[in-house]
Design the sequence.
């Protein structure tokens, strides 16, 4: 997982701060997709996809914060950024397809 690889490079003092937050956000994305999918109802699935999308937005913000911190600004964020962008696009498409109010 790209976020785990990235946060391995973070300073030790961030283990209970940004590292922990980023890892929880990253794990929350697929966890909520799975939970929603196996609830069995389209409405529930859609809600959990939205929660996953929100976790992705949190992670995006946390990555931006890390990019600005002196001890983490010079790390390579390319892999995490690219993967998150792809996941967010997929979630967006899934949400649009399941939400009848957004279909034209």
Sequence:
């Amino acid at each position: 997982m790209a976020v785990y690889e990235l946060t391995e490079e973070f300073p030790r003092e961030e283990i209970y701060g940004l590292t922990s937050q980023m890892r929880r956000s990253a794990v929350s994305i697929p966890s909520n997709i799975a939970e929603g999918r196996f609830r069995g109802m389209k409405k529930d699935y859609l809600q959990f996809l939205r929660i996953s999308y929100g976790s992705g937005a949190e992670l995006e913000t946390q990555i931006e914060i890390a990019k600005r911190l002196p001890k983490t600004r010079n790390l390579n964020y390319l892999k995490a950024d690219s993967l998150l962008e792809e996941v967010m696009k997929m979630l967006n498409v899934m949400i649009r397809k399941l939400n009848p109010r957004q279909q034209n």
Observations:
- The domain at 2-98 is CATH 1.20.1440.60 (de novo design (two linked rop proteins)).
